[in-house]
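Quick one, probably user error.
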């Protein structure tokens, strides 16, 4: 029996990188996947799932647009079923020293990385409470656990998502809703390569050498941790933060 058979899983940021890998993995675990993203390319993720024999639909959904998020949930409720699982993967950042950031950049980073997941959590909760259970997994970052130079406001948002998730986990435990966070270290995705673009090769080498496993994560390795938290295997796990970083960070 597949671990997520009969479950509906909504994934944000599913057009690319980690979100795409999560969507494919949850479908492989038996879930009906609602692959969402601000980018229209998310349709290709749903197609890839169907091609592999899974069930999925795609929806263009910008997580900073609360009305659109609520609209997608309403459509889903009417046509399929409200999500049993929410995975907040959508994210964005630009490497830059804090003193060079513009307030417009802060707003964009906060809207996508902090307010977006908060909006999506709120949007799914009434249905999860009515259903008597659910699983929420947010993609944080090691930047949010230990800090990261050049990603100051982003790290603040990811740290915010960690404490938001722990607090929400306490509030909704009585409804059998689990809320957990997966924190990737450097992962081989377009976001990562976009951020290091222009950085020196020497710096990249030094970073990779500082990872005990001496390589970037593959998106599928982050998806494996998400699949655990989404599954009944994690029924008794909530308010937790798992770093999937090849050992780069080992603090509690
Ligand atoms: N790649 C890394 O090294 C790394 C490390 C730690 C954490 N993360 C986190 O992992 C998550 C996935 O990142 P990735 O590396 O796969 O990046 P990615 O750029 O490959 O994918 C991110 C996706 O989010 C979508 N997105 C951006 N803004 C959106 C919005 N407002 N609404 C809906 N979708 C939006 C993008 O269109 C894109 O498809 C992010 O939350 C990121 O912060 C990544």
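Nope, works fine. Designed sequence:
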């Amino acid at each position: 029996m597949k671990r997520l058979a009969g479950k509906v899983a909504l994934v944000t940021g599913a057009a690319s990188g980690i979100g795409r890998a999560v969507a494919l993995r949850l479908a492989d675990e038996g879930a009906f996947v609602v692959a969402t993203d601000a980018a229209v390319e998310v349709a290709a993720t749903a197609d890839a799932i169907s091609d592999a024999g899974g069930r999925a639909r795609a929806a263009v959904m910008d997580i900073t647009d609360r009305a659109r998020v609520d609209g997608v949930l309403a459509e889903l409720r009417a046509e399929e079923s409200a999500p049993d699982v929410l995975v907040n993967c959508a994210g964005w950042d630009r490497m830059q020293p804090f003193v060079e950031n513009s307030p417009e950049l802060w707003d964009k980073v906060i809207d996508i990385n902090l307010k977006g997941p908060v909006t999506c959590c709120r949007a799914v909760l009434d249905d999860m409470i009515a259903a008597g259970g659910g699983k929420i997994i947010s993609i944080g970052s090691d930047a949010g656990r230990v800090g990261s130079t050049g990603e100051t406001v982003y790290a603040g948002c990811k740290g915010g998502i960690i404490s938001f998730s722990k607090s929400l986990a306490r509030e909704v435990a009585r409804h059998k809703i689990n809320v957990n966070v997966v924190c990737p270290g450097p992962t081989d995705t377009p976001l990562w390569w976009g951020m290091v673009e222009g950085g020196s090769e020497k710096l990249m080498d030094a970073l990779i050498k500082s990872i005990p496993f001496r390589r970037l994560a593959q998106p599928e390795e982050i998806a494996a941790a998400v699949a655990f938290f989404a599954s009944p295997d994690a029924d008794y796990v909530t308010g937790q933060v798992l770093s999937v970083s090849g050992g780069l960070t080992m603090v509690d």
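Residues 12-13, 15-19, 37-39, 62-64, 89-92, 112, 116, 139, 141, 184, 186-187, 189-192 surround nicotinamide-adenine-dinucleotide (CB under 6 Å).
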